[in-house]
């Protein structure tokens, strides 16, 4: 963070300029992602994660770089064994399945990947909490 300086130390910047720099620093720090990585599963692999309906971000992704955007949904999920947060990026179909389970009150969900590339499907099922 930028520290307060007197006029002889502020490199010629006005108070307004210094305030703008302080504000920008605060904004950047508040926007720093707390999630470290994406949850990636290989074909046939499964994972159990806790979903939080308050932590969902819609995304429009241009995968091909050609300006054609695809709708995706980023869910912040928590590994119940380690407490580590990850992002699970879901398609419209998988997102519908996840949202339906969240709406029913489930938050601990099993994600199972089937297929590769365009043939990938995610099967989402609730996990009974013990």
Fraction in beta strands: 35-45%
Which strand order does the major sheet show? 1-4-3-2-5-6
What is the ordering of alpha helices and beta strands? Answer: HEEEEHEE
Total number of strands: 6
The span between the termini is 45 Å
Mass-distribution shape:
elongated
Biggest β-sheet description = 6 strands, mixed
Estimated helix fraction: 10-25%
Low-confidence stretches: 1-8
- Average residue-wise pLDDT: 87
Number of helices: 2
Rg over alpha carbons: 21 Å
Quickly give the structural class: alpha+beta
Comma- or semicolon-separated keywords:
single chain; 130 residues; 6-stranded mixed beta sheet; 6 strands; elongated; disordered N terminus
Topology:
Blueprint: H1 15-31, E1 37-38, E2 46-61, E3 70-78, E4 85-90, H2 92-103, E5 108-114, E6 121-126
Parallel strand pairs: 1-4
Antiparallel strand pairs: 2-3, 2-5, 3-4, 5-6
Describe it:
This protein has a six-stranded mixed β-sheet, covered by helices on one side. 22% of the residues lie in helices and 35% in strands. It has two helices and six strands, in the order H-E-E-E-E-H-E-E. With 130 residues, the protein is α+β, with helices and mostly antiparallel strands. The chain is elongated, with a radius of gyration of 21 Å.
């Amino acid at each position: 963070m930028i520290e307060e300086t007197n006029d002889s130390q502020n490199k010629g910047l006005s108070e307004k300029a210094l305030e703008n720099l302080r504000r920008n620093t605060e904004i950047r720090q508040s926007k720093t992602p707390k999630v470290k990585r994406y949850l990636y599963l290989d074909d046939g692999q499964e994972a159990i994660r806790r979903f939080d309906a308050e932590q969902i971000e819609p995304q429009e992704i241009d995968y091909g770089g050609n300006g054609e955007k695809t709708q995706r949904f980023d869910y912040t999920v928590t590994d119940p064994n380690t407490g580590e947060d990850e992002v699970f990026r879901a398609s419209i179909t998988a997102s519908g399945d996840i949202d339906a389970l969240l709406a029913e009150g489930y938050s601990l969900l099993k994600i199972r990947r089937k297929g590769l590339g365009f043939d990938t499907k995610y099967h989402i099922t609730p996990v009974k909490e013990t």
